[in-house]
Amino acid sequence: MQKEQRPAVANWFTAQDGAVRLQGTRCKHCGTPYFPRNTLACRNPYCAGPKDGSELDEYQFSTRGRIWSYADARYKPPAPYVSPDPFVPYVVAAVELEVEQMVILGQVVPGFSVDDLAVGMPVELALGTLYADDDAEHTVWMWRPVDD
Fold it and tell me: Which of 11, 37, 57, 74 is deepest in the core (most CB within 10 A)?
């Protein structure tokens, strides 16, 4: 029996119908995007809009970008991070999103090592399992290399 899938971090991404999208907010006035979501006020110092947060809308980020930096994660992170037992090393990538031109950090899908990656390589969002317990698979967004 397949376990239920639950986001490991609530309200940071959606994976409806297999389409993974990061969720955040965006200022209606100046267009500045925020991830994770910002609910207080636009922090762009050049924004002339209201500073009370009333101009922030829900926003789904673009799904593709290019690797800006990457590294091996060979040691089990400390709590509150939850990882499989036994710990399995993984690769993390900082990816500059095509549309928003901001950098988002995430794991790279299993099966890729740092030897398979390069700065500037195109990637897209994918759904992956961070860990599983008796009740569910706890999912996160991951980066998957793609052809240009």
Answer: 37
Residues 81-137 pLDDT 10s? 877 778 889 999 999 999 999 999 999 999 999 999 999 999 999 999 888 888 888
Sign of CA dihedral 66, 68, 37, 144: positive
Distance CA 132, CA 87 (A): 12
The angle formed by the CA atoms of residues 8, 132 and 14, to the nearest 5 degrees, is 30
Query: What's the confidence (pLDDT) of residue 51?
Result: 66
Q: CA-based diameter of the chain, in Å?
A: 54
Cα distance between residue 12 and residue 42, in whole Å:
18
